[in-house]
Specification:
18% of the residues lie in helices and 29% in strands. The protein has 360 residues and is of the alpha/beta class. Strands 5-4-1-6-11-8-12 form a seven-stranded mixed sheet, with helices on both faces. Strands 14-17-20-23-26-29 form a six-stranded parallel sheet, covered by helices on one side. Strand 2 and strand 3 form a beta hairpin. Helix 3 packs across helix 6. It is elongated. The relative contact order is 0.13.
Length: 360
């Protein structure tokens, strides 16, 4: 199996302000754009050709990755003129595929961090003779996800969207966002309009008698759709909990990129990342957080489970917990921001004026 489609067209609305200037897959995680981790893992699994289905801020991808040769890949880019949904995006790039009608095509989403054994999913697809194979994972609370029950052989029996009552929760298996399609099945997806594989393509295939196979892989899996999840995913990459050959350094409590400057008495723990050109002042304590390129943390600041945007500045003795600070924002000294607070790009908070939390 040598080719794949990577869906990277989403607007990343839930991740704002991180995605105001940067598409979600290009937000740095563990020191490199998150997409780098996905591409590197696909290449390690034997994928050679990947078509990126782009939309939002599509112009960002190709200048960074080029033809993919630096990663040992052949990359192509197809941009949607109008949002087409997951199924529509897959169909929109079909002309760039090189596979024969019965060959497998890997399809994965640009916002899922996973330890999935890609080779095992492809092997399951081939050995079962499936038309489509799905990566499934088990979760403690499946109410926010689409359920995918299977029979004892792993064959999918239904697709159940976001159950609301206990009676509807018939399995803890959910759609984990990675698939292998028989190439000819992709050509059956309608063109020229939005299509959801989850709500339209898969249920219709199942109703028509197609063979959809599920493979449960309960290794690391995280949807990076919220700032809190993104920060956690980056930290888990640094700590080695989530596998990736693209982490630019050894796994451990911290990852400091070479051009960053960290005061000798600053304490960085729990998978903290200090990006290129960032500065951490004396006595600062940073736990499980990410500082993007050029960010500055002044002396005595305490930052926990937060993401500091590119070029942002955090004032002396300011306390952040579960906060997201947009690119170029300025947080004055002696502020306290907690519990999901978000500060927009280039905003300014004067010293000592804010002590509040938000669950927005």
């Amino acid at each position: 199996m040598t080719e794949a489609i990577l869906l990277v067209g989403g607007k990343g609305t839930r991740l704002r302000p991180l995605t105001v200037n940067t598409p979600k897959p290009m937000v740095p995680a563990a020191g490199v754009p998150f997409l780098t981790h996905q591409l590197a893992r696909a290449r390690a699994a034997g994928v050679e050709h990947i078509v990126l289905a782009t939309s939002y801020l599509a112009e960002v991808f190709e200048p960074h990755f080029g033809d993919g040769s630096e990663l040992g890949l052949s990359l192509e880019y197809v941009t949607e003129e109008e949002p087409l949904g997951t199924g529509g995006a897959i169909r929109n790039v079909a002309s760039r595929l090189r596979s024969g009608p019965d060959d497998p095509v890997l399809i994965f989403n640009g916002d899922i961090l996973t330890g999935l054994d890609i080779g095992a999913l492809v092997d399951t697809h081939s050995s079962s003779g499936a038309d489509v194979s799905l990566h499934l994972t088990r979760v403690d609370d499946p109410r926010a996800f689409g359920l995918v029950p299977t029979d004892p052989t792993g064959r999918v029996t239904a697709f159940l969207e976001k159950p609301q009552t206990p009676e509807e929760i018939v399995t803890d298996q959910i759609n984990a966002g990675a698939y292998v399609f028989r190439r000819s099945v992709i050509d059956t997806i309608p063109t020229g309009r939005p299509v959801s594989v989850e709500r339209e393509t898969f249920p219709e295939l199942l109703a028509s008698g197609a063979h959809l196979q599920g493979m449960v892989d309960s290794t690391y899996w995280l949807d990076l759709g919220t700032p809190q999840a993104f920060v956690r995913g980056s930290a888990d990459l640094v700590l080695g909990r989530a596998p990736s050959p693209a982490v630019p350094g050894r796994c451990g409590d911290r990852l400091v990129l070479p051009s960053a400057r960290v005061a000798p008495d600053a304490k960085l723990t729990a998978g903290t990342v200090v990006g290129a050109g960032a500065v951490v002042g004396e006595g600062a304590r940073i736990t499980g957080s990410t500082l993007l390129a050029g960010a500055v943390v002044e002396p005595g600041a305490v930052i926990t489970d937060s993401l500091i945007g590119a070029g942002a500045r955090i004032g002396a003795r300011t306390v952040l917990s579960g906060a997201v600070i947009g690119d170029g924002a300025r947080i004055g000294a002696d502020n306290e921001l907690r519990d999901g607070i978000r500060v927009w790009c280039d905003a300014t908070l004067p010293p000592g004026t804010v002590r509040f939390s938000s669950d927005q």
